[in-house]
Amino acid sequence: MRIHSVWVAAGLVALAAVSGCGTQEPAGPTAATTAASPSASPAPESTPTPERTKDDTEAGPAELLARAEAAMGAEAGWVFAVTGEESLKQSGAPGSTASYSATVERTGTPEALHQTGTILSKGKRTPEELFAVDGTGYVREGGSGAAWREGPLTDPEIAAKVEDPLTVLGSFTDYAEKGERIEVTRTGGEIRLRIRIPSGSLADRTERPAIAKAALEFRPTLDTLRKAGVTAGEKRIVLTGLEETLVLDARTHRMTSYRSSFGFAVPHEGRQLRYEQRLGADTRSPFTGRIEVPAAASS
Asked: Which of 136, 233, 260, 264 is 20 to 30 Å apart from 212, CA to CA?
């Protein structure tokens, strides 16, 4: 999540709390809290979509995800509303929290993404804009007068800022292929696919793709904590809970919403640092425009 760039000092602030110093921000939600209930606002239909096949009610996760990929790929692009929140708290001390909201435009051919949003941290709102095109990210924070920063999407700092809701379909497909248990429920015109991992450790990322995904989001904050003196190994960094829920329209199989929440507890000098993240995405409408990187960003 892109919050890290503004919130990077939170790790140092939390460590400073040992000596009685800390932020005045309220603590974020507990990691044990599950993701908020997904809102299901099906995107307007601009092209005909086939009705469900007779065996749809018996289709498993892999088949449902394949249908969702096809349904979302039938449009040139999509508009999503994205929200996120991160918090870092040390036991016995005040916590630090930051939130984010954005509109994301995403096209498939050519593959490109444009997001505009606002970061709220310590009472300050910071606008942010990002383009992701041809493997490169272009980011500016602070409004139209701010400088652009360019970097490969393989750079963790850049990658953490990109919110592409369509990648969720690929993530869930990976989970299914690697044996993660995906719950499927069908109610009220919706199909919900959910994965839950109640506990684990950061070291489990080598075996479980959902934890690997959470570890990637956590990495910028962990790097900051390392610089601040945290030395706990990955086996001692505990996953305090993970849940992801993907909602599809039962008739069209289009993705309507996604919610995720996870947390890690990091031991340090007899205390615990608790990192938590929530993310939500809602499909708003098909997108028919073009996404082009401004000359000022790529110069």
From this structure: 136
